[in-house]
Each structure stands twice: as structure tokens, then as C-alpha cells.
Write a structure and sequence with these properties.
The chain has 15 helices and nine strands. It is of the alpha/beta class and about 325 residues long. Strands 5-4-3-6-7-9-8 form a seven-stranded mixed beta sheet, with helices on both faces. The N and C termini lie far apart (about 65 Å). About 40% of the residues are buried. The radius of gyration is 22 Å and the shape is globular.
């Protein structure tokens, strides 16, 4: 009988946690300083030498390290992608997706399938974003992962979208400011506002200063369920609505509708799921399941976005995409007359 390729899928969650441990325990950062033995790494990271050796051997099979002697290991170029604070690092992606909250939620995903409720709230007794508000160290993991994704995709998402036509752009749920910084770089005379919860915008001022756009940008903390900064002619949201169910998404959209100028534009950057899916939509549908178990949100079809926008007082004017390798689309909406 031929071996099923699905067997590999059953084992792969272990690889994700191995990479998470290697980054979270700073084994990768130590190896970036030079070759090490398992004993040296264990002493430097307060871990158990024989167990570290076993983990290093698996890392070698993943191409993250090279085993040059029975107990001596060097970081590879690929392994460098897991270092702290380096361009292109994916460390924060593993720290978020393999964190205790996300990991335990996937372990209890059947609860979401049985009830439609989030496994996260079932396990922690509160919604995910409320938990992040109380645990800044966990919020930092999410901010890091989202900043990494935004850095990879921002240029492709805004390509072909002329932001110079706007006087002020408000990035609703803009987090660390990476996306707004890219927008303002593309539109040298446009001003911008990053708007998010206090834990979300904690690093935004630093990001905007590093991008050289701080003189045209404002950082404002608040809840987009209550209000958004008023009077702008453009509001953008990147990967915000997919975090929330329809009721909460409508609260956000209606708040923007109350604040936007009559001739303003709402630009939404999300994955748009087709009515019939194929293998190329795998990442989007994994994200859909992640929202199910973590936040109660969902990825949506074009018709579902059109319906939400209509209920909030907007008309969907255009959909561009998918844009870039991660398959995001840009939905542009105008206030309904």
C-alpha cells in the first residue's frame, strides 16, 4: 500500500514547535554569535544539555543548523531568518502562532466546531483581544508578527493605489505603524494617523520616526468600537475586519461612516475568499480557521463584504487583487448617497 502524504501533515506541528522553542529560548541568537556545542548552549540559556542536543539534531534536518561534529552546530543562512531584530526575521511569527494562547486554542478547536464559539475564550475566560490588553508581553508577540507580515506585503498592497489624492489617511487598527509609514512614503504631501489600542500603538512613534515620516504622522490610542478620528478623506484597514464577527465589524464600519468626509474613501485590505476554493487558497482558509478558534472573526467572500459595507452605509466601488503572494485584495468603498 502506498504511503499517504497526509502522514507528513500529522507530524509537522512538531516542527513548528521546535522552531518556536529554538527562537523563544534564544538558542538561535546564541548560534548567530558563532558555533556552539549543546553544553555551551545549555549553559548560556539555562536549559538541559542532552535535551538541547536532541533539539539541535532536528534543527539540522530542517536546514536551520549544520552539524559539523557530533556535538558542534553552526547556524545556516536559512536559520538566520529566525534571529532577533534582523531584516526579514520570522521569529515573531513563530512566537505568536506557537504561543500558549494560540497553541492551546488549536488544541481545543473542536469546541469551536461544536459551538461556533472561540476556543480561546473557552480556555481563558475572556476574548483574545481583552487578554492581550491585560498581557502586554503577549500583545508584543502579535504586534511583531503583524509588523513582519506588513513589512513583507505593504509595498505590493499599495502599488497601483494613488494615496497622493488624499490629504489625511487614518489607519484604523494600524498597530505599530508599518503600513501607514509605507503609505506616507508613497505620498510625500499626505498626512496620516495611526489609530489603535494603547498596546497596539506602543511602538508606532518609533516606527514612523525610523521611516522618516514622523513630521506628517500622528499616533492616537483608542477603541475603534467606540469612535475613530474624524474628518479624514481616507480610512484604511488592513487585516482588521477578519478579526471580528459581523456585528462587531458593523460597529467599526459605522463608526468610520460617521467620521469620513462625504467624498472620502474607505480602503480595506483583506483576503477575499472565492465562492469555490482551490489549493491556492490554502493560506486564506487556514487564516479563516485561526479566526474561528482565536477571535470569532472570519475571512469573507466579495458578496459578504458588499453586504457588510451596505449595512454600514457604504457602497463597494471596486475590488483589486489578489495582490502579492499572500493573496490579499484591496476593496475600495465610498459613502452611500
Amino acid at each position: 500500500m502506498a504511503r499517504s502524504p497526509l502522514t507528513d501533515v500529522a507530524w509537522e506541528y512538531m516542527s513548528a514547535q521546535i522552531l518556536h522553542m529554538a527562537t523563544d529560548l534564544e538558542l538561535i541568537d546564541r548560534l548567530a554569535e558563532g558555533p556552539r556545542s549543546s553544553g555551551q548552549l545549555a549553559e548560556e540559556t539555562a536549559t538541559h544539555g542532552p535535551s538541547v542536543l536532541r533539539l539541535l539534531r532536528v534543527l539540522a534536518t530542517l536546514g536551520v543548523v549544520t552539524q559539523t561534529e557530533p556535538d558542534r552546530f553552526e547556524l545556516t543562512e536559512l536559520g538566520g531568518d529566525l534571529r532577533t531584530g534582523t531584516p526579514g526575521s520570522v521569529r515573531d511569527v513563530f512566537r505568536f502562532l506557537c504561543s500558549a494562547g494560540a497553541w492551546s486554542s488549536w488544541g481545543d478547536a473542536a469546541h469551536s466546531l461544536r459551538t461556533g464559539d472561540t476556543a480561546f475564550e473557552h480556555n481563558y475566560g475572556m476574548p483574545a483581544f481583552a487578554y492581550l490588553g491585560r498581557h502586554p508581553e503577549e500583545a508584543a508577540k502579535l504586534n511583531g508578527a503583524m509588523g513582519r507580515m506588513t513589512s513583507e506585503t505593504a509595498a505590493g498592497l499599495i502599488a497601483g493605489c494613488d494615496f497622493t489624492r488624499f490629504h489625511t489617511v487614518v489607519d484604523v487598527g494600524g498597530g505599530s505603524g508599518v503600513f501607514l509609514a509605507e503609505i506616507l512614503r508613497s505620498a510625500p504631501r499626505t498626512a496620516g494617523v495611526v489609530y489603535d489600542m494603547p498596546t497596539g500603538v506602543a511602538e508606532a512613534a518609533q516606527t514612523l520616526a525610523a521611516a522618516g515620516v514622523a513630521d506628517r504622522a500622528t499616533v492616537t490610542a483608542g477603541s475603534f468600537f467606540e469612535s475613530v478620528p474624524a474628518g479624514a478623506d481616507a480610512y484604511v484597514m488592513k487585516l482588521i475586519l477578519h478579526d471580528w464577527d459581523d456585528e462587531k465589524s458593523l460597529r467599526i464600519l459605522r463608526g468610520i461612516r460617521e467620521s469620513i468626509k462625504p467624498d472620502g474613501r474607505l480602503l480595506i485590505f483583506e483576503r477575499v475568499v472565492p465562492d469555490v476554493v482551490g489549493a491556492e487558497h490554502h493560506r486564506a482558509l487556514l487564516a479563516d480557521m485561526l479566526m474561528l478558534v482565536l477571535t470569532g472573526g472570519r475571512e469573507r467572500t466579495e458578496d459578504e463584504y458588499r453586504g457588510l459595507l451596505g449595512q454600514a452605509g457604504f457602497t463597494l466601488a471596486s475590488v483589486s487583487g489578489p495582490l502579492g503572494e499572500l493573496g490579499f485584495s484591496r476593496l475600495e468603498a465610498v459613502p452611500s448617497v
